[in-house]
Amino acid sequence: MSHVKAGGSAKNIHNNAGRRLGVKRFGGQKVRTGEVLVRQTGSTKVAGPGTFISKNFTIHAAIDGIVEFGKVRKGHFTGKTVPRTQISVK
């Protein structure tokens, strides 16, 4: 008679560290070139003038200046437009 022993319970396997996403520099703050402004999953916020977006969607400052947040409407391939927050450095 073949059998499989009990596998046990797996209750404590979901203890990985948080991803530390979110806004790192807020509106009105001074930033230097290369500083991280926002860490995000996907393009929930878009890069404006004075910023650039890296391959993991992190927005960095391209110039020294003051951070500003604004609202823009971004068009999709289907023609639908959705509101997005735009981060810029001036």
Question: If you had to describe this structure to a student in words, what would you say it looks like?
Answer:
The chain is mainly β and 90 residues long. It has one domain (22-89): OB fold (Dihydrolipoamide Acetyltransferase, E2P). The protein contains no helices and eight strands. The chain has strands at 22-23, 30-31, 36-39, 45-47, 51-53, 59-61, 65-75, 81-89. The strands form two sheets. It has a four-stranded antiparallel sheet with strand order 1-3-6-5, with no helix packed on it. It is elongated and about 75 Å long. The mean pLDDT is 91.
According to CATH, the homologous superfamily is RNA polymerase II/Efflux pump adaptor protein, barrel-sandwich hybrid domain
Count of helices? 0
Radius of gyration: 21 Å
CATH architecture: Beta Barrel
Shape estimate: elongated
The low-confidence runs, each spanning 5 or more residues with pLDDT under 50, are none
Average pLDDT for all residues: 91
Sheet-strand content, in percent, reads: 35-45%
Number of domains: 1
Give the N-to-C terminal Cα separation: 76 Å
Major β-sheet annotation: 4 strands, antiparallel
The CATH class: Mainly Beta
What class do helices, strands and sheet pairing give? mainly beta
Q: SSE string, helix = H, strand = E?
A: EEEEEEEE
Question: Spatial order of the strands in the main sheet?
Answer: 1-3-6-5
Number of DSSP-assigned strands: 8
Q: What is the CATH T-level topology?
A: OB fold (Dihydrolipoamide Acetyltransferase, E2P)
Helical proportion, percent range: under 10%
